[in-house]
Amino acid sequence: MQPDLRALLADLTSGDEARAESAVPGLAALGEAALPGLLELLRTPDRDRRWWATRALAALGGDGAISALVRALQDPESEIRQCAALGLRHQPVAGAVHALCAALNDPDRLTARLAGDALIAVGPRATPDLIELIAQAGPAAKIEAVRALAGIGDQRAIPALYSLLDDPSALVQHWAEEALERMGVGMVYFKP
Q1: Which class would CATH give 93-192?
Q2: pTM for the full model?
Q3: Top-level class of domain 1-72
Q4: Rounded alpha-carbon distances, angstroms, from residue 86 to 81, 152, 166, 187
Q5: Of 13, 34, 75, 125, which is least packed with CB atoms within 10 Å of its CB?
């Protein structure tokens, strides 16, 4: 391991938040060379080390980092799942859509919300998976999926959104109406 990488990983895992945060840009600058050390940290039982590894992976970018962030969406600690979802929000890729859709079911609602934000960032490439999800999702995940569709604004979702206008959940109805309005297909009322 090169000296700069060793020093940066030591700073990242020092327990000093300012020192750890200052190590993140240096690790990102090292690119792929930093990946093995960060992946090793991601496998440790220490929650703080896993969180900082996730934080650094979010700044790193690249296929290996994205794959690690997708795996981190299943970490037992909600703070790490949140960090992974936020990282994927800042590096939107279609390859993360399936895992992000699954994260809409996360028992931690902040993680689910951040996963929805990441899906919005992915954009129209997430639309088919979100449409499929709303057909079978539980209430909380359905709300986040419809919110994501509203944020994306892909017209392919219009039929699915219209079908949700009578959903038992007022929040699902709200986001479906919001999505349709944003797309310029709001409700049209006819006088009898």
Answers
A1: mainly alpha
A2: 0.91
A3: mainly alpha
A4: 9, 17, 32, 34
A5: 125
